[in-house]
Please model this.
Amino acid sequence: MKFGLTIFPTDYTINPIILAQEAEARGFESIFLPEHTHIPINRETPFPGGGDLPKEYSHTFDPFVTLGAIAASTKNIKLATGIALIVERDPIILAKEISTLDIISNGRVLLGVGGGWNREEMRNHGTLPERRWKLMRERIEAMKNLWTQDIAEYHGEFVNFNPLWQWPKPLQKPHPPIIVGGNGANTLKRVIRYGDEWMPIGNRGEYLNRIPELQELALESGRNTIPISVFGASSDEKSIIELANAGVDRAILRLRSKEKEQILPVLDQYTSLIETFSN
Model:
């Protein structure tokens, strides 16, 4: 079992560079950063976690700028988004940002992707919520072309560009792993169509019983077994054993958006899981 961490890095929490260095020193495999470009004040979309929207959602840092700083300050820990809101980003610019990050980090990027839940937020980016899934697919397909082809082009309903040159190409080949987040009805189809891994959310709905379905779909499509990460996994040993027995490859443990003095003791508690379950 691999162990990752996720946190909303903000202007009032532990410095994410220090967090990543401390996590790397303790043997954590990866750090996953979420994304919200902003939070609209007038919002009708309910928070999927229930209750009021936590403060950190409107304070979180840009994930790619932050991961770039972490890349320059660490050697081994993998740099992940959990998740990047592809429907709120230009694919040509994002493809270059990811390639650049993959090179300067010596091939440590994991690209967690999703369509998002905050409809007012995506509308402010010109995205129609009801069309976001096709938009996400086209943008990911377009980025794959940019990463793998010397002369790239893409022609879709939402993404359309004629032949062009773009370098650098990612260090990882053919590109950094694309980890499709979510537990929705059509998520597994999205994993098969354009993803490399699946990342269900640990506290939202049943997902363990969908793992056999995913692997069966992979077999039918001629693919190998698809790795699975659980985002926001429980940190008790019984739950970790259950994940391992179900075929989960990575447990991503949550950290609250707190200061260094409150975070480091939690890291130390989590480290015992690495010692117990890491291969």
